[in-house]
Amino acid sequence: QVVRYQLNDEGVPFDADCIVHFSGNRVLSFHCSFIHPLNQTVTVSGTGSEYTASMTDAILPRQGDMLSYTLVRQGLISYDEITTEDSKEVQID
After folding, report:
1. 30 near 52, Cβ under 8 Å?
2. Average pLDDT, rounded, for the chain
């Protein structure tokens, strides 16, 4: 479901915010845009997930045969004053 978008003068979409609904009340949201031409980052997060997946070379992959993404888990401790972060890199052939 597209919840917000912008069109250029020719009616071509160049910026959009979208939501995908899955079973079990799970929701995926994403933003796709040509406004920031040098940004190749894809970040995927959803309700009920411990981790956020981030891929920094999504459009033009780095040289080589490997694709990688980082899984990041964030949280709050000590009366919600201190943030914690746990991350790991996953490589795919």
Report:
1. no
2. 78
Q: Using the Cα atoms of residue 77, residue 82, residue 69 and residue 43 in order, give the sign of their dihedral.
A: positive
**71 exposure class (CB count in 10 Å sphere: 0-12, 13-18, 19+):** middle
pTM of the model: 0.52
Q: Other CB atoms closer than 10 Å to residue 80's CB: what's the count?
A: 8
| Strands ordered across the beta sheet of 13-22 | 2-7, 13-22, 26-33, 42-46, 52-55, 67-77, 82-92
Contact 84, 74 (CB under 8 A): yes
d(CA 35, CA 37): 6
